[in-house]
Amino acid sequence: MKKSKAEKKRDREILDLYHKKVTEEALEPLWNYFEQWKAGDYPYYELTERIHEFHKENQEIYKTFQYLQRERLIFKAKKEMDMFNDADLQKEIYKRWLELD
Asked: Which residue, 14, 7, 9, is CA-closest to 73?
């Protein structure tokens, strides 16, 4: 089904919000480690390990946004951000994906 210009714009907005959400969730713990390190309560070598872990997590975020089929990504975003509307819940593909998740 071809989407209207307004639907495409809304999809982009949803994906932007979702990208911000998952990235900020990954960054928040790292930020806390930086604050602890700056206060002298966390060793630098542990901080560098946390940075490395964040980098790996961020690579997974990147892969999700680059390689997951777009409609599936929109579904995932709407589901995780509780943004389903009545029309979404009537889509046959969404019904199938909800059964799988």
From this structure: 14
Closest listed residue to residue 77, CA positions, set 90, 86, 64: 64
- CB contact set of 70 (below 8 Å; sequence gap of 6+): 11
When pLDDT is cut at 50, 70 and 90, the band that residue 98 belongs to is confident
Local structure of residue 68 (DSSP, 8 states): S
| Both tokens assigned to 40 | 């002298």
Q: Is-contact 15 72, C-beta < 8 A?
A: no
- All structural domains of the chain with their residue ranges: 5-100
pLDDT in tens, 58-80: 999 999 999 999 999 999 999 99
27 contacts 54 by C-beta, under 8 angstroms: yes
- pLDDT digits over 3-50, tens only? 999 999 999 999 999 999 999 999 999 999 999 999 999 999 999 999
